[in-house]
Amino acid sequence: MKWRSVLLWIISILLMMAMAVYQRTTGPSYPKDAEYQYKNATIHISLPTSADNDADARVIIPDSLGHLKGYYTFRKLNSGEAWTKYQMHREEDGLIATLPAQPAAGKLEYKIYIKTDGEAISLREDPVVIRFKGPVPVFILVPHILFMFLAMVFSMRTGFEAIFRGEKTFRLAGFTIIFLLLGGLILGPLVQYHAFGELWAGWPFGKDLTDNKTAIAFIFWLIAWFKLRKDPKNRFWPILASVVLLAIYLIPHSMFGSELDYSTGEVATGK
Question: Which of 93, 174, 244, 270 sees the fewest Cβ atoms within 10 Å?
Answer without folding.
Answer: 93
